Amino acid sequence: MDRRVTIELFGQNYTFEARGEARRAQKVAEFVQQQVKEAEAALDRLSGVNRVAIMTQAALNIADQYMELKQVHEEILQRIGDRSSELVRMIDKSIPGKATG
């Protein structure tokens, strides 16, 4: 399976070797491409905006999404841990003669 993925940015093609599954790498490339287009559209109304500014805005947008998802993930893990602990306590209470701590 070809592990090379091509992404087009600013009318130029960039090809890179996928570290993992090619389909996932293609999705990542498409996501980056979409983020760049959105940043370009948002910054289009400003004069003198160059490619570096657009790429920087796209990178900041992606990082913001990542940080938000990371926080949600951590909150979910905390809730799972809390609920698991509560279930263990409930099970321990239901076992006759089980010492509770």
- SSE topology string: EEHH
What would you call the shape? Answer: elongated
Largest sheet: 2 strands, antiparallel
Which band does the percent of strand residues land in?
A: 5-15%
Helix content: 55-70%
What is the radius of gyration?
Answer: 23 Å
Count of DSSP helices? 2
Chain-averaged pLDDT: 90
End-to-end separation: 55 Å
- Give the total of beta strands: 2
Order of strands across the widest beta sheet?
1-2
Oligomer: single chain
The low-pLDDT segments are none
What does this structure look like?
The chain is mainly alpha-helical. It has one domain (4-94). The protein is 65% helix and 12% strand. The chain has two helices and two strands. It has helices at residues 22-43, 51-94, and strands at residues 4-9, 12-17. Strands 1-2 form a two-stranded antiparallel sheet. The longest helix has 44 residues, at 51-94. The radius of gyration is 23 Å and the shape is elongated. The mean pLDDT is 90.
Secondary-structure map with pairings?
Elements: E1 4-9, E2 12-17, H1 22-43, H2 51-94
Antiparallel strand pairs: 1-2
